[in-house]
Design a protein that fits this description.
The structure holds two protein chains of two kinds. Chain A is an alpha/beta fold. Chain A has seven helices and eleven strands. The chains are: A alpha/beta, B mainly alpha.
Chain lengths: 210, 187
C-alpha cells in the first residue's frame, strides 16, 4: 500500500477529526497517514498544540464593578414600576403605611372639623365670647371639656377640666377637684383622642359587665 | 439556567429594570472574555461588553424567546467587536505601547505606585503571546476561533450566533486553525 503523503486530503481529514465530524472511513485513512508519515504527524501535532494554547489562556473575569456600571448606563425605568416592585417586595410595610395613611386621614379630618368653639353642656356655665366661665359661688358637677376656647374658673368644678386649643384661668377662689389639662399640639390632641377612645371602651365594657 | 434567564427577561419586559442585574451577573464574564479575546485590550473589552449589555436591554423586546439568550447576547457582542475592529480608531489607552519605545506604555509616563509591569508580565507571558497571536488573526477567523475554543460553543451554536451556514463556519475554523498553527508552531 502506498503511504498517503501530507496532501490536502489528509489535512482535510485532520480538520474533520478536530471538528468531531469525521466518518469511520476517513478516520481510518487519517490514522494510516499519521502512522506512515512523520510530516503528517508533525502537522497534526502543531494543529493540536495551537488549539491547546488557545484553550489554555486562563479564563479572565469581568472587572468587579462591571454589573453596577452596566446598570448605571441603562435608560431610566418608569417610576410606576419601581413603586410597584417595592410594594410587592414589602407587603407588611405596605399594609402598615396604608393603615397609617387612612388613620391619619380620619384623625386629621376630625381635627379640622373640630375647629369651632364647643364645650360640655353644664347648667351652671356662663359663656362670654369664646370663654366659658364657672361663676363665683357656683358648683359644677361633672367634667368640663372646652374646645377652641378658654375657661375661667371662679367657682368650683367637681370633676376634670380639659381645654383643647385654649387657655384655662383658675381664679384664686376657684377650685377643681379633678385634673386640669390643656391640649394645644396635634400630637397631644391625638394622644387625648386615643386615651379618650380607650376610656370610653373601658366604660362600655364595665357597663356590660354590670 | 435558561429558565431563570427567561423568567428574568419576562420581568424586564414588564419594565422591571432590576431583574436585568441578575442577567448581567450570569453572563458578564463570558461576554467580557469574548470581547477581550477579540480585541486584546481590557479597556476596549470592558467598553464593548458593557455596550453589548446595554444594547441587549434596549432591544430586549426584539429577542425571540425560542432562541437561547446567550446566543443572542453573543451575537450582539461579536457584532460590536467586529465593528470596532473594522473601524479601529487610534484610541489611546494607558497600556498601549508608546510608538518608538521598546515596550514602554503610557503607564510609564505617569507616576505609579502599583506593582511594576515586569512583575505582571512574568507570569502572563505565554498568555500574552497567545493573545497577541489570536489578535493577529483576520477578524472573521478570530471570531469563530474565539467562539469555538474560548467560549466553547458548538459549530451549530456558532452558526446561530453569526447567522451563517455551518459550512461557512467550518471553513473559517479550518482556516483559523491553519493560521494559528503557522503562528504558534515556533513556541
Amino acid at each position: 500500500m502506498i503511504p498517503l503523503k501530507c496532501t490536502d486530503e489528509v489535512i482535510e481529514y485532520m480538520h474533520e477529526y478536530l471538528d468531531n465530524d469525521i466518518s469511520k472511513e476517513n478516520e481510518q485513512k487519517l490514522r494510516q497517514a499519521l502512522q506512515d508519515c512523520e510530516d503528517c504527524r508533525n502537522y497534526f501535532n502543531e494543529l493540536k498544540k495551537a488549539i491547546a494554547f488557545v484553550q489554555s489562556t486562563s479564563h479572565i473575569e469581568a472587572p468587579s464593578n462591571f454589573t453596577a456600571s452596566v446598570m448605571a448606563k441603562l435608560p431610566k425605568e418608569k417610576k410606576k414600576v419601581s413603586v410597584n416592585r417595592w410594594l410587592k417586595h414589602h407587603p407588611f410595610l405596605t399594609a402598615v403605611s396604608l393603615f397609617l395613611v387612612l388613620m391619619s386621614g380620619v384623625l386629621f379630618s376630625s381635627w379640622n372639623t373640630d375647629h369651632q368653639f364647643a364645650f360640655s353642656k353644664q347648667p351652671e356655665l356662663v359663656v362670654e365670647n369664646d370663654t366659658v366661665i364657672v361663676p363665683e359661688g357656683k358648683v359644677v358637677t361633672g367634667d368640663i371639656v372646652v374646645r377652641n376656647g378658654n375657661i375661667k374658673i371662679e367657682g368650683q368644678v367637681d370633676g376634670n377640666v380639659t381645654v383643647i386649643n385654649g387657655d384655662q384661668f383658675l381664679a384664686a377662689a376657684g377650685e377643681v377637684t379633678g385634673d386640669i389639662e390643656e391640649i394645644d399640639q396635634v400630637f397631644e390632641w391625638l394622644w387625648y383622642q386615643v386615651k379618650d377612645t380607650f376610656t370610653q371602651m373601658k366604660n362600655m365594657i364595665m357597663k356590660n359587665k354590670e | 439556567m435558561e429558565l431563570l434567564v427567561k423568567q428574568r427577561i419576562k420581568e424586564v419586559l414588564k419594565g422591571d429594570q432590576s431583574a436585568y442585574e441578575e442577567i448581567v451577573e450570569i453572563y458578564k464574564d463570558k461576554v467580557f472574555q469574548l470581547c477581550f479575546r477579540m480585541l486584546g485590550n481590557r479597556h476596549e473589552a470592558e467598553d464593548m461588553a458593557q455596550e453589548a449589555f446595554v444594547r441587549a436591554y434596549v432591544n430586549i423586546h426584539t429577542f425571540n424567546t425560542n432562541l437561547k439568550f446567550s446566543t443572542w447576547l453573543y451575537r450582539i457582542a461579536t457584532n460590536l467587536c467586529i465593528d470596532r475592529i473594522r473601524k479601529k480608531k487610534p484610541d489611546y489607552y494607558l497600556d498601549a505601547e508608546v510608538a518608538g519605545t521598546d515596550g514602554l506604555n503610557m503607564y510609564s509616563q505617569i507616576a505609579s505606585d502599583i506593582e511594576s509591569p515586569e512583575d505582571q508580565v512574568e507570569s502572563l507571558e505565554l498568555h500574552d503571546i497567545i493573545q497577541r497571536e489570536i489578535t493577529k488573526l483576520p477578524e472573521k477567523y478570530r471570531t469563530v476561533i474565539v467562539l469555538k475554543y474560548i467560549e466553547e460553543l458548538s459549530l451549530k451554536e456558532i452558526g446561530k450566533v453569526l447567522d451563517m451556514p455551518i459550512g461557512t463556519i467550518k471553513t473559517r475554523i479550518h482556516r483559523g486553525r491553519e493560521a494559528l498553527r503557522k503562528q504558534l508552531s515556533n513556541i
